[in-house]
Amino acid sequence: MQHIKTYFPNLTPSQESQFAALGELYTDWNAKINVISRKDIENLYPHHILHSLGIAKAIEFTAGSTILDVGTGGGFPGIPLAILFPECRFHLIDRVGKKIKVAQSVAEAINLQNVTFQHGSVEELKTEYDFVVSRAVMPLPDLLKLIRKNIKREQQNALPNGLLCLKGGDLQNEIAPVKKTSIVFNLSDYFKEEYFKTKKVVYVQIVKK
């Protein structure tokens, strides 16, 4: 929890208690359904919650923004972002029903009101959002093909509408096709932990034709 308070010192008491509750909730669920690697559950706060919040270093979502989390798994990055941005609305989708069940149960347990959930694939989803967020579910060009239809034309944020994706490692080849419309944010510029040395947020602007 200290990781979160260090980098996000202006949390409300309600946000603090929601973030604090995630540790026990995910540990309990992970014993039943493997949503986080068993070896990594002890690193829940830096490797999963703080990592998810890396997107908030790339953009401060305007109140009223709508965000789709594709391939959310147990709720990352959607649940930490929904706690941080209570004035925005988040929709979390995943193909694996038991993972969505975990995310939904966690959100209910902390009384997180600004999230909805869907068991299914993004190919079937027709709704439009200001942004799509994702945590390395597939290569960028593949993801962009799937989610282009889900981005709104109307703008209300400092960054134009598009995709914000948490990635790691060497991304040169993956970013090459969208180099002109993308920005790479190195999370090592914001978070000092060794884990973030190669972690990035990749933003890609999506212009609707």
Explain the overall architecture:
- This protein is of the alpha/beta class and 209 residues long.
- Helices cover 34% and strands 19% of the residues.
- It contains eight helices and seven strands; from the N terminus they run ααααβαβαββαβαββ.
- It has helices spanning 2-7, 13-32, 44-53, 55-58, 78-84, 97-109, 140-147, 172-175, and strands spanning 66-70, 89-94, 115-119, 131-135, 162-168, 182-186, 199-205.
- Strands 3-2-1-4-5-7-6 form a seven-stranded mixed β-sheet, with helices on both faces.
- Helix 7 links the parallel strand 4 and strand 5.
- Helix 3 packs across helix 5.
- The mean pLDDT is 96.
Give keywords.
single chain, 209 residues, alpha/beta, 7-stranded mixed sheet, 8 helices, 7 strands, globular
Distinct helical segment count: 8
What integer value in Å does the Rg equal? 16 Å
Beta-strand proportion: 15-25%
Mean pLDDT: 96
The termini sit apart by: 43 Å
Percent range of helical residues: 25-40%
* Shape annotation: globular
Largest sheet: 7 strands, mixed
As laid out across the biggest beta sheet, the strand order is 3-2-1-4-5-7-6
| Poorly predicted residue ranges | none
Strand segment tally? 7
Element-by-element helix/strand order: HHHHEHEHEEHEHEE
- Helix and strand content put the structural class at alpha/beta
